[in-house]
Amino acid sequence: EFYQQRFLQVHVDEFQDTNTIQYAWLRMLTEGKDNLFVVGDDDQSIYGWRGARIENIFNFQQQYPNHQVIKLEQNYRSTGNILNAANKVISMNEARMGKELWTEAGEGELISLYAAFNELDEAYFVVDRIKAWINEGGLRSDAAILYRSNAQSRQFEEKLMATGTPYRVYGGLRFFERAEIKNALAYLRLMSNRDDDASFERVINTPTRGLGAKAIDDIRLIAKDQDMSLWSAAIALLKQKPMAPRAKNALVGFLELIDRLSTQAEGLELYEKVQMVNEQSGLIELYKNEKGDRGEEKLENLDELINAARLFDAEQENEENLNELDLFLAHASLEAGDMQGEEFEDCVQLMTLHSAKGLEFKLVFLVGMEEGLFPSQQSSDDIARLEEERRLCYVGMTRAMRQLYLTYAESRRIYGRESYPRPSRFLREIPAECIQEVRMRATVSRPQAIVKSVDLMAQGRQFKLGQRVGHAKFGEGVVLQLEGEGAQERAQINFKQAGVKWLMLSYAQLEAL
Prior knowledge:
By secondary structure, this protein is an alpha/beta fold. The chain has 4 domains: 2-63, no CATH class; 111-170 and 336-437, 3-Layer(aba) Sandwich (Rossmann fold); 179-332, PCRA, domain 4 (Orthogonal Bundle); 468-512. Helices cover 40% and strands 15% of the residues. It has 20 helices and 16 strands. Strands 5-6-4-7-8-3-11 form a 7-stranded parallel sheet. It is flat and about 80 Å long. The termini are far apart.
């Protein structure tokens, strides 16, 4: 009663994001009074995994019978084509109040759909379009790449770095700066160089292994007094000072783990070494036991690290005759360099779809539009979760002010294996008259959609993306990328036995299979 008298009028913003307790508290605060004003959009309820209940916005009308609904349907951000497409997609949801956004800004440009051969081609296309946007006078900060999972950022980061384009991962860290990636790389660095003190410090107790702060302090003290690495100091500690049995066993176990990983890594491919470290270090088990979506996200990032290792081209980067692992670690260090833009700097914005809510950009790329990725695999058999994924798509599409690109890959490496996902169902829900397709081969399947396919890259070339080829040394492979012209034309090929290689076509003597 005190607070009912204290707050005569109650105003709630982002009402669709309230949870059960918050709504119950509001009900108590406004009981018997018509003094509650709420602002919300049921079509933007995307935080169910965080406890938000979309039912609150639906129940409001029954529990406040004297309510008045005011629909704000005029949109001042996006063009007509973007809104028409977004309206159609979200209309497929059953759990919604219903509204139809419109604008006086005109129809604008058609939405562009790009079907990439794989995730590398997808990143190449997106960054190429951003470069064209910048060359035409557009600001980098007006361009945004939106993705469902943080693990998707790596390919785009690498391509932006390669072109010298400043970028910022909004609301998060760059791929190689994420804690789980640093942990895995620290194990790899320690395997390669036992005297890497920073890596030793990072993983000596990650995951926790029963080694207390006192034992670690003793290692640091010996290292300082005897001018030796932490690794050597740990060995010296075992010989020079008595230790509690648990701490001693933990330290011995850690040292033996690193030695064992190094021994087992001999003869393995680079990606197999990364996969082995992820599994045997205990990192995978650590993040499996982490509650909520954060643990799952970290596992996805570790899997993407395996993909990064598999696609790493050591021959192209080897200028100092380093082994492949050391080259990869050096590459990771460079990727974690200073290309990250500051908050107010003119830089391309990368972010998850959840982070994009409330923001707007003139040029938007909504990437990874594939079944199992977006919508996520976990939502496929759950109507409520699928409808939240569709709301997330709606939010992503309506971030675009002028130009919207939707992209998907016809093949994508997931969990270390090549997969061939179907285009997202959300693409099929977009009216054909709102979209134009820019791709190299067939069109995406869509009911009654008549969209012409445009071949941008294959014209005039002796090989095509996806073509099977043979090489005298490397054997059979598949063409992943093509770039350059004439004598400078080269191809990136995924060979069954030799992995991914870049070859100059004028010298490679490839045979079409």
